[in-house]
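README: folding subset

This subset contains proteins for which both the sequence and a predicted structure token string are available. Records are stored as plain text. Below is the entry for Decarboxylating 6-phosphogluconate dehydrogenase (289 residues), shown exactly as it appears on disk.
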Amino acid sequence: MQLGLVGLGRMGGNMRDRLRANGHEVIGYDRNPAVSDAGSLAELVGQLDTPRVVWVMVPAGATEATIDELAEHLGDGDIVIDGGNSRFSDDAPRAERLGAKGIGYVDVGVSGGVWGKEHGYALMVGGDHGLVKHCMPIFESLKPAGQYGFVHAGGTGAGHYAKMVHNGIEYGLMHAFAEGYELLDKSEFVDNVPGVIKSWREGSVVKSWLLDLLDNALDEDPELAGLRGWADDTGEGRWTVEEAIRLAVPMNVIAASLFARFVSRQDDSPAMKAIAALRQQFGGHAVKR
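--- output ---
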């Protein structure tokens, strides 16, 4: 199958390689001419046969402008796939704008990171059944081998919604491993923290890919001495908590893991200063100046 692919960064570039290895013709565009197959979006579209399918894999902040520019060069029967981490609520208005020009729209949540090129990507897809069916050869090549790794989650927005929840869960799982690591590290009973983590990789109920990645990190730096305790968030965790509030779903673990990331960015927490001041005021407790 022929595919246009916009955005050839860490994810997009690896996806292009995986698709080409599976026999697809992929024409990619990126602002970096060193990796791009086309000089512009217009040139990219011009190299595709109709009906065209173009997958957009750019950072969320650039998605809207990229799709709007792309739509100027597409026409009736073409399909745009957004595989970036867009907010699900952006999908329906985007699909409506494209639909007015006869252009189909499919939203895809993609998980797999830099490992997806070798192992495949988990794909959560939203959109019209006919559009999804048309794109299935691409999805089949990107997903892992076997019965898992793909779902047509529902209509427009369902793919990005599913990916949002996936990432919220990821926040909670990562933080549980992080807290367990810190407790092991501070314990006077455990002498081999990396060894404990490694021992869990087989036969344990917490066996997981995230655990494997933590083990890999400890192999490279057993005390994680080369890292600062600072963690960013890319939006999905916030959106998940917002949805939990909207739907009155108790989401204690995911919310706590999100707030923990905010704490990580404070060198000297104002909130903890206030707590220290209050403890000193009511109980005369010692404070650190």
